[in-house]
Specification:
This protein is mainly α and 446 residues long. The chain has one domain. It is built from 22 helices and no strands. The protein starts with 6 loop residues before the first helix and ends with a helix. The N terminus and C terminus are likely disordered.
């Protein structure tokens, strides 16, 4: 993704081009990490419904809750960031069409194919009878679409689409010379000045934690906020829970100064991020790795006897949860800015394969996970095999089909650049350039 947005861009002046290899790299690697996240659910004691596997370990609860703290929030930050950059160089109609291509079309295609296959396999593994054609149109099939469970891992894209629409509407209704546009850049620049340095950044982290806590608390007070807004969609609570990350992504795109402050490397951030991963604060007793023990300890102290004190405890834990999330999200951005800012064939390949990995992997995790239900191997080995096999299956699909067949690239990646992408290194060329060159040389006639 290219672009830099400044106050002059808001006024309608053409933006300078820049490629954000670090942010692209962060998004790509996290999408690959999603494979391990979902493979962990196969062996997590708190996820007994994923497969029938009875071999489970508490470590995998820790693993998936750790990943949940930062993977998806970072996606929303990146979504807001790139939405502004796209709007800076496209018309509103062009932006909407681009997001429809890159988000809605792949979402629909995976939902009606691989997600439905996974739901059918889950039903069959649970003892359901009948062919997949008989299942389509059955009460169970209709219920899946009505209650929103058709989404599975795609809920992220479902939530992101309304945010894109909101960004397009705001951009369309505000004149180029509107004061609000200039104010948004000025405010973002001011936030960048405040966030620079060490100690001020700590207060910025605290503020972001408080802002997210307020957002969650306000959403929870909306009547019917936990009910689906309409059949098959999402609740208001679910839809707004990640919105602050999208907003800060927007602000970072508006202000290079704010972006520079957020990705500035700070020596203590790795320790803060490690602390967040180890303790994993969650507001609910059945979440996280140590929260059940925290609530057991507070209960033994009599906290559960007072409703107000219990509420205060949950709010405090919610704040710590959001503080931990922001710490991890910003550490990820700082890490990639420091170590993966140069780009290159590997980063380019990861960025190209990232959406395929996110879309396809979930079904393969279930298939391979279910294959190990009757296998008595060490679960760490099983987990590694499920993760690697699922990722390898997606890489093959991407390399053989999505990168080469125009119709499949459009339907599952929303792109029409097969000719251009064929000229770029594939998986072997990106990660094993020596072998790729040797293969080409061997293939040439004597």
């Amino acid at each position: 993704m290219t672009e830099t947005l400044t106050a002059s861009n808001i006024a309608g002046i053409a933006p300078k081009r820049k490629h954000y290899h670090d942010i692209d790299g962060a998004r790509s690697v996290l999408m690959f990490l999603s494979v391990a996240l979902h493979a962990g659910t196969v062996y997590a004691p708190m996820r007994p419904w994923i497969t029938g596997n009875e071999d489970r370990a508490v470590f995998f609860d820790w693993l998936i809750f750790a990943f949940h703290l930062f993977v998806t929030p970072t996606f929303f930050f990146v979504g807001g960031f790139f939405a502004v950059l796209l709007l800076a160089r496209r018309s509103v109609v062009g932006f909407v069409w681009n997001r429809f291509q890159r988000t809605a079309i792949p979402l629909i295609m995976i939902a009606v194919s691989f997600n439905m296959l996974e739901h059918y396999l889950r039903l069959s593994d649970a003892g359901g009878k009948g062919s997949i054609l008989e299942w389509i149109g059955s009460p169970h099939f209709i219920q899946i679409w009505a209650d929103g469970t058709w989404q599975l891992h795609l809920w992220f894209l479902v939530s992101l689409i309304p945010m894109f629409i909101l960004a397009a509407i705001v951009h369309a209704v505000l004149p180029q010379n509107a004061g609000l546009r200039g104010w948004s850049v000025t405010f973002s620049d001011w936030a960048g000045r405040v966030a620079s340095g060490g100690l001020p950044f700590v207060f910025v982290l605290l503020f972001l934690g408080f802002a997210n806590t307020a957002n969650y608390s306000a959403a929870a007070l909306v009547p019917g906020g936990y009910d689906l807004l309409f059949p098959g969609f999402q609740s208001w609570y679910k839809l707004t829970s990640e919105f602050p990350f999208f907003v800060i992504g927007v602000m970072a795109a508006l202000s290079p100064r704010l972006l520079a402050s957020l990705v500035e490397w700070r020596w203590w951030m790795p320790f803060a991020a490690a602390t967040a991963l180890i303790f994993q604060p969650y507001p609910m007793a059945d979440q996280g790795h140590i929260m059940p023990f925290v609530f057991e300890a507070t209960a033994s102290a009599g906290i559960e006897l007072g409703v107000d004190r219990t509420f205060a405890t949950r709010i405090a834990l919610l704040f710590l949860n959001q503080l931990a999330i922001w710490t991890l999200v910003l550490f990820v951005l700082q890490f990639f800015h420091r170590f993966f800012n140069e780009g290159g064939p590997r980063t380019a390949w990861l960025a190209d394969c990232a959406l395929s990995m996110y879309l396809f992997h979930h079904c393969f995790v279930y298939i391979f996970g279910q294959m190990f239900v009757g296998v008595d191997w060490p679960i760490t080995l099983e987990f590694l095999i499920v993760t690697i096999a699922s990722a390898a299956a997606v890489i093959l699909i991407h390399e053989i089909l999505v990168r080469r067949i125009p119709a499949l690239r459009f339907l599952f990646n929303g792109k029409t650049d097969v000719r251009e992408v064929k000229k770029k290194p594939g998986f072997v060329g990106a990660f094993f350039p020596g072998k790729a060159a040797q293969t080409v040389k061997t293939a040439k006639p004597a």
